[in-house]
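Meet our chain:
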Amino acid sequence: MRKIFLATFGGTPARGELCLYLNAAAGLYQNCGGIQSYPIDKDVKSPNYINTRNMYNQYQSFHEIVKDTDMASVDIVRTEAMFEDMLREADINSENESIRYLMSRDYGLNEQDQRLLNICYTEEEQDKPMKGGYYGRANIGSVTGDILIHKGIYEKLNLCRDIGNALKAGTEVDVVVICSSFGGTGASLGINFGKYLKQEYGMEAGLRIHCIYIQPYFRFPDPDNDEWGMDYRDFYAKSATVISILGYEKSFIKENENDENAVFDRFYYLGQETLDQTTDKNSARSGQDNHIHLVDMLVSLAVQDILMDKEQTRPQLYGYQYANEGTNILSWRNMPFGIGFKTKHVCMMRFCEFMLDCMEPLFDDGYSDYEQEILIIWLYGSKSLFDRRADINDSIKTQLHGDMQACFEFCRNYIKYWIELEESTRFGNEQTNVTRFFNLSELKRILSSRESGYADVRLNANSLKLTETEAYDNYEKGNRCLNVYDRLCKDKRLKGIAKPGKDKHSVARTLVRVIYEECAVENYKDQRE
């Protein structure tokens, strides 16, 4: 069984990691023995870092409950604090970390060294302390990277130790380096880390090293100072040229399976030719939009491609770039994995809709008719033939309510991030949305459905509306939530599952598995895919 290690350098790949949890929840990444993610970012207080940590914790809770179902079945382990560990090992104090300090600390700077430093960096750059992140200054981050390699820090990392242990155990290992062509941390450390891995572990059997390289998908303004700045159009073109040249170097990207000396088995070049205008500041710290974008979903799908396509022999340079030539919209048919990707996420979205519209109100502590609800009586059994109330066991109820709340929390964020993805993706100066995956108004309705009253929501909710867009044919068979609810109340698999003697999570696991199966898309063929 294969194991995949993700080394994510900087804040931008964190948004791709968010999409990874969306895909994992929907049932992707099943062709591996687990995913281990290692975020390597100096700015651990950034929204990207915090959002990804929170989503990981929610995925873990959801996974623990539903891991025996078609949802969230893959084990994911996220290991934090790596960058600070590296700095401590290198005896670098972030409070006084600056170019001049790092360059002069061990041996001092002679006059010639100082002149060279003055050529490469402004005086402000030389003395600027890097307390949080590198904030778009890849040249400064590269100095830290050189010191980490010089001092032999990488081999002390738990990431490298874990890779080595997996290889020794005979496990097939895919290491995926995820970095950006812009910013500070990813641009300065990502590619070089891949080269380090090749030097240290390249002769080990069963190892493949890949890179997911993220191009800009947001516009930044033209610089005020032409001497030091770069027009964003030039930046994009130059970055593309560099990768094209590197792609043809035999020492960088494999041309075929027999090319043993190349660093990367697969190289994914992801971006958008027509940049979105999401920032008006040339600053990664304060101007960059932290909402996930369609390119972030492509990052997570590149991971799926690595898992599914390991045996195919072909040129190993891949590029996914979105432009507005020939289309005004982007939908499922524009994405890798086509109908399979679409079906899994539609099934998951239908499940989330039912959970939030029909189940969450039942498990609200303020729901006064809980004991008399037909589904609850079906789960627990009735007190007697003459007392039509559920025979509720308090310990089972406490466990079940806790499990269901964890599911509701993840479902809510699953929908929230899909809304974010669709609303964040635009072409250039266009202000209208260009994505057509789900019906945005219906997704927003679900998140605010509690305001409408439980009875009306359960009566009117219809999963067919989730996929009502002009981009593609809808599913032939809708599934009204009330019909699903009625079937649950008669399903023999659920009868009496909440009686005493059940194991932890077993009641919720059975319940959510049946709900998912009832909500799933069946026997659907989209003639336009």
The radius of gyration is 26 Å. The first strand starts at residue 2 and ends at 9. Residues 278-287, 523-529 have pLDDT under 50 and may be disordered.
